[in-house]
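Suppose you are handed only these lines of text.
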Amino acid sequence: MGLAKFAKAGRNEIRYNRLELAVIPIEKTMKIEKDKVVLFKYRLSDANDSLLEQSDDKVPMAYLHGHNNVLKALEKEMDGKSAGDSFSVTLAPEDAYGPVKPDAEQRIPVKHLSGAKKWKKGMVGVVETEQGRRQVTVVKVGKFMVTVDFNHPFAGKTLKFDVDIEDVREATGEEVSHGHAHGPGGHHHH
Ligand code: ZN
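From them, the structure of the protein bound to zinc ion can be written out as follows.
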């Protein structure tokens, strides 16, 4: 009789544990807020639904929330979401990369332009400026000088983001002090 009682208790115990396993992950779902690292995939299209860029198929993008690492309007949409959530948001140019500024063309030595060996009109390169790295669009190519447009390639564009949140995790102290996410999809400078 003692043995039968034990077996019964054992079975109940197993059932109880199974119930717990089913409940815990839902209760522990982490919401996106300041100092969380968000892993996400995205597709970025313009107002005509043409694809502008998208994240890597295998490695999601990683960013540290609340540290100005993504567009403010996009970060606002991310807020409070969690792994498994998907959303679409359309941003007017003023909420994205701003309007196209006139007089943003400048002639610079071609050696200051990085990203390709041979340049053609319409290509996007990178220039180091006093305000940091800037993406520029090539307007005219000469032998030693190149005319570039300092407007962001997405300036003046309405941008539609389709976002899938893959994971949300706690940031490390080091990530918070650096102001960005480390590891796959984040910064690699260590
Ligand atoms: Zn760092």
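What can we learn from it? Residues 178, 180, 182, 187, 189 surround zinc ion (CB under 6 Å). The mean pLDDT is 88.
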